[in-house]
């Protein structure tokens, strides 16, 4: 379980996060949604330690990540998998080498063990046959799958996905969402996804947190998303629906 408590972050005199709290549970795919510039990525970066919050706590199964010493921070980091926007694959490495990379960096497993584990993860994301290919030879959806395989190769307790659907067509997006949700359930991972994608919100949002100007204005599950009495949320959903309809015309 991940708990965030009263996270605040300002850049200069601009307050980006104005005290955000919430809980993310194992086996749940939790979404953070909100308009552009509302602080979603900054919140995610505070959670994974790329940005230090000015105030607040991030607890990983009760362990305070913000105040942790180097040793504990490293221990918690090893339990995280991250799927970055744009997949962030190494162009000069094969698909299998990309997936193997965290094992090369962070473990003392033998080469045979690393290859076995990387192949297992590739199979799990439906790419068992693609290990020898180069990233330039595969589609955007396949690249996301490779990114997911790499994010789970260390068997993470916590998985973070930043806009996993960016640049994908609607059908591929749904497949990627379903894969993230299935893996979360199967391995009981605590998964946090940042998304703009209306389909994702309706399909996989077991728990949704809506950010607006650095504050959490609403949270709930996707069945309640379209029935809130929060004007900012309704406006956000309406704008996204319009966008979706325009894209499908
Ligand atoms: N390192 C930084 N230094 C200064 N300002 C920053 C920094 N990182 C983010 N910001 C500002 O914080 C605000 C929130 O950014 P953030 O990337 O979290 O938005 P977002 O909700 O993820 O938006 P989007 O959906 O467009 O990615 C933006 O105005 C951004 O310019």
UniProtKB/TrEMBL annotation:
Q: Which PANTHER family match?
A: INTERMEMBRANE PHOSPHOLIPID TRANSPORT SYSTEM ATP-BINDING PROTEIN MLAF (PTHR43023:SF6), PROTEIN TRIGALACTOSYLDIACYLGLYCEROL 3, CHLOROPLASTIC (PTHR43023)
Which stretches make up the ABC transporter domain?
Answer: 2-238
- Keywords, in A-Z order: ATP-binding, Nucleotide-binding, Transport
What this protein is called in its record is ABC transporter ATP-binding protein
| Organism superkingdom | Bacteria
> Could you tell me which InterPro entries the record lists for this protein?
AAA+_ATPase (IPR003593), ABC_transporter-like_ATP-bd (IPR003439), ABC_transporter-like_CS (IPR017871), P-loop_NTPase (IPR027417)
Q: Which lineage ranks, top first, belong to the organism behind this chain?
A: Bacteria, Pseudomonadati, Bacteroidota, Cytophagia, Cytophagales
From what organism does this protein derive?
Answer: Nibrella viscosa
Select a single GO molecular function from the record's annotations and give it.
ATP binding
Q: Cross-referenced Pfam families, in alphabetical order?
A: ABC_tran
Q: Which SUPFAM superfamilies match?
A: P-loop containing nucleoside triphosphate hydrolases
Q: Which SMART domains match?
A: AAA
């Amino acid at each position: 379980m991940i708990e965030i408590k009263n996270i605040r972050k300002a850049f200069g005199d601009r307050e980006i996060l104005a005290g955000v709290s919430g809980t993310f549970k194992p086996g749940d795919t939790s979404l953070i949604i909100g308009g552009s510039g509302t602080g979603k990525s900054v919140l995610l970066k505070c959670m994974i330690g790329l940005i230090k919050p000015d105030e607040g706590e991030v607890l990983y199964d009760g362990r305070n990540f913000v105040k942790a010493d180097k040793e504990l921070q490293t221990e918690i980091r090893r339990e995280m998998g991250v799927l970055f926007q744009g997949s962030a694959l190494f162009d000069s490495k094969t698909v299998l080498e990309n997936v193997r990379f965290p094992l090369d960096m962070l473990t003392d497993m033998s080469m045979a063990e690393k290859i076995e584990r990387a192949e297992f993860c590739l199979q799990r994301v439906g790419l068992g046959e693609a290990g020898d290919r180069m990233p330039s030879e595969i589609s955007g959806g396949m690249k996301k799958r490779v990114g997911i395989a790499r994010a789970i190769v260390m068997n993470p307790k916590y998985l973070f996905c930043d806009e996993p659907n960016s640049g994908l067509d609607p059908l591929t997006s749904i497949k990627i969402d379903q894969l993230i949700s299935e893996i979360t359930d199967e391995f009981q991972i605590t998964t946090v996804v940042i998304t703009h994608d209306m389909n994702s919100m309706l399909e996989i949002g077991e728990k949704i947190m809506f950010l607006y100007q650095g504050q959490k204005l609403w949270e709930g599950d996707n069945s309640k998303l379209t029935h809130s009495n929060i004007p900012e949320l309704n406006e956000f959903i309406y704008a996204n629906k319009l966008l979706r309809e325009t894209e499908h015309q």
